[in-house]
Sequence to fold (207 residues):
Amino acid sequence: MSDLKQERAVRTRNQILRAAAELFDEEGYEGASVTRIVKRAGVTLGAMYFHFASKQDLAREVMNAQPYVIEPLLRSTGLQRLVDITLVWAHRLQTDPLLRAGVRLAVEQGRFGMHDSASFEGWKDIMVGHLEVARAEGDLREDVSPEEVAQFVVGACTGVQLYSQLVSGRDDLMERTCTMWRLLLPGIVTPGALPAIVVDPGLVKDA
Fold:
């Protein structure tokens, strides 16, 4: 495939992914028909099925795209990176349809016959990697398991955003995420490293 054709194919795929995310976010899985997705994307049905085998396959791609929305925005490392991931996630859940749809689909997937933990496991694996860096830098307590912390943070963030959505339409999600870290950090961070970990919503507002 020539560079031009490859670039066009990537652009088409992204158009479909973005259009699907917008409709999944607005209408849920059931309300987002393939016909409406291709119409919003401005592509043909053939183009849709060239890139995605089915509507479920498209939903799976939207769910798994969450890290690609957030990770490129960050420059921090170790434990600070872990905190920043969740703060940017909380901030962008207010406005980014790809992120919002990914979260909605991941939580509601049982309704449309999917039981795919890949999006949760993907976040967990990313977080384990950052926690291993923190361990190597001496910032993570020796009695703390990166795997257990990552699993807890993924589960906690899932629950926090659901609670926030019900209570305030996610208006207080950032506040709740910061509270989670203020409670969690003293139990996992070495005393010397704790003062250096910044939990500040203001630092991610432009992300």
Remarks:
- The chain has two domains: 3-53, 66-203.
- The two ends are 34 Å apart (CA to CA).
- The chain is about 70% helix and 0% strand.
- The first helix runs from residue 3 to 31.
